[in-house]
Amino acid sequence: MTEPAETLSFEDALAQLERIVAELESGQAPLEKSLELYKRGAALKALCEDRLEAARLQVEKITLSKTGQVEGTAPAEFN
Q: What distance in Å separates the CA atoms of residue 42 and residue 20, rounded to the nearest whole number?
């Protein structure tokens, strides 16, 4: 049985998604399997996007003084 997407690491989800894309692009999978692969791929894509967004929000910006010394960090602001 296939692991639920949400239990996979980002790297494992991305690797599975790449395999699914390759199989779908090959055109060799029967219609029913293609539909299953597409659904799994959509779930993996959503997971990867969520994980990337979470990582993006953790990025910090470095505050430098006028002399170029690090003064501190602050949460990143993405507007």
A: 10
